[in-house]
Amino acid sequence: MIMISCGTFRNSDKPLSENERLEHVFGEFKILYQRLLTFRNSSDFKAEGFGGGGLNTEWLVKVNKLVENPDSKLLLKKSIDVGDLKHLGLAYAGSKGVETEVTKNINKIFEEAIIIKRVENEEVNLDNVNQGKTKSIVELFSQFPNENLLYPNGIKDNPVIHPYQETYVDSAVHSKSLTGLNRVYSYVSEPTYMIFPAKKEINRGIGLIIFPGGGLKNIWIDKEGTDIALWLSEQGITCMVVKYRTNRKDSDGDWLVDFGDYKGAIYQDARTSMQIMKEFADSLNFDKNNIGMMGFSAGGWLTERMVYKYYNGNYDWNPKFVALIYHGNTIKLIKEVKDKEKLPPFFMAIAQNDNKLTFEKVLPYLKMVSTEVKNSELHIYPDGGHGFGLAYDETSAVSEWKNEFVKWLDRMYK
Question: Is the pLDDT of residue 9 over 70?
């Protein structure tokens, strides 16, 4: 069925300038600060502090490494002493996550150093705005569920190794963003996931794994991940947001991690995500045989590959349904499938004015899928461009895609 409705990120291995080193180490700092504010109220941390293993224990190890990193001294330009981050963690461990004068004072220093950019290109210091309208940095960083390692025991012979620690930059945030953040991660070699349980009163018994986009070099974790999961969980859908491993390119545009090895790595990330998601089915009250995958742009590429690579087998990681959001230009894939009854239903959404994945380029493939794969739908919108994410502007036609997605699920599974 077809329905028609009326920052620059560095990935080369060239030596970084001092300013680039500052921004990179600042990203590392924010990741560690955010993780601390997320897990400080967890039962594991309250009971065992940094001795409980997993990301909690790893947090202290990484903070110590950051303290020892000579580039951490560059953070003094932003009035940040990395040693204060370690002191904050130890203070929370001592108070079992409860705020004290020590934690409040350190958080205030960090709040003054972290600036969130708005879509209007205005920089807003969140410590000085109306707290009734805008959340503080502490509130923003504390709102997420625990971030968990996809491979808690590590990855043997991991082919995705980067010369720098994982980091992120802040892209402009839309005023209607549900998270109030727009982080763009790079240099991801240890994939993680977050679980967003469905709203209990309207739990639809459906699970969804979300792969954000970013050209396989970056991960737009909020715009195409946590914002989506927050909205869909309120509609009764349990969501998992996956921060899968990323690649990087040199100055000539060539992949620096062998692309064959890299594909194998992120296919593994996607398979593992499904296997872990099924483990939550009983505790979060959804059907383990009713879990789909949704991908945005490059995340759509990964979602699509999980279908065509494995549809012929009865694997644990086969998705029940898939959603491709501004992705799909490989008509060869669908033409090679002899028995299309084996394919899961597709939900597809695209804007006619997409200037990256042009409408004319993707329409033949998307149209063929929508007409030849049972229960599949293609939603075409006149506006939205590439990367509309949740599509916050409710006056725009493309904002309807998320509602149409939920209706589509209801038609199939209610």
Answer: no
